[in-house]
Amino acid sequence: MLFSRSRSSRSIYGALAIAFSALVGCSDFFPVERQSPAKEDFLTLTEDDRILYKEGMKDQALLIRNVLDEKVKDIEIVHGKPFINPPVVHLCDTRECFAKYTGIDSGILAAVSSNGLFLKSYVVTHEDYSRWLAHELSHLHLRQQISTFRASFIPQWYQEGLATFASNGGGANKVSRKKALEYIHNGKHIVVVDESSLFSDPWPLNYVVANDDWPKPWYQQHMNYRQASLFYEFLHPNGGIELIRALENGETFNDAFKSVYGKSPEEMFAIYKSSLAKNKVHENI
């Protein structure tokens, strides 16, 4: 999920909780369907029927077509298997359109809801649109197999870390790897909780964000995504796909994580930080 407005993590999540409760109910307890329930409200791109768009957005739809196959393959490699169903991309021309199908009326630019994957028109005008698309495709890959309700209990650091890693930085373009590592080295980082809920802070931090940290407050979201992706990058080679399979098979995140890594997320993050410190020492020798 990608953001554009200036607001705190807690207020963003509050909006998401309200949006969740306002969605059509029953569909939130099932994975994303093969056929888009919104298809009749969109035009279908003749050249690729996986892309649905609003009147006047054909050029943007064609841009999505140019990169969709490549990004689908990228996500399938990281997730370790093909999409269960062909991914469908919806392009919205207005904020009202986006809110109607995602339940989110805010500065969020892209999201996967129980109705599928939706992008606001601004996404396709951005130079990083292919990475943003890939980020949401990662979410969709998982959500084709688990419901919106179940996903709400999987920590944000994991969901966004996986999606940002799989998309090669999609959603974290305002914060470089170097800057995120600098913060971690200085003891300023996300807290990797082992469970989540609709009413918990999605992005707990171990530090207080200063007003002068960023030129715009929403840059903090990019820092969170970047740090989460760096940690996920550390986790992925030694159990990343096994963890995804366990979640798809119905295990809770906490149980699945411990069964794969033998430790809690917090313990693994401590090992990750220790590895960074050792690498930094070696660089200075």
Note the topology:
Layout: E1 2-3, H1 9-22, E2 43-44, E3 51-53, H2 58-79, E4 89-92, H3 95-102, E5 108-113, E6 116-120, H4 121-125, H5 129-143, H6 148-151, H7 156-166, H8 177-185, H9 219-235, H10 240-248, H11 253-261, H12 265-284
Helix pairs in contact: 2-5, 5-7, 7-9, 8-9, 10-11
Task: Tell me what portion of residues adopts beta-strand conformation.
Answer: 5-15%
Tell me the quaternary state: single chain
Query: Helices and strands: which structural class?
Result: alpha/beta
Q: Order of strands across the widest beta sheet?
A: 1-5-6-4-3-2
Q: How does this model look, in words?
A:
This protein has 285 residues and is of the alpha/beta class. 50% of the residues lie in helices and 8% in strands. Helix 10 packs antiparallel against helix 11. The longest helix has 22 residues, at 58-79. The protein starts with a strand and ends with a helix. The relative contact order is 0.13. Mean pLDDT is 89; it is low at 4-24 and 281-285.
Annotation keywords:
12 helices; disordered C terminus; alpha/beta; 285 residues; 6-stranded mixed sheet
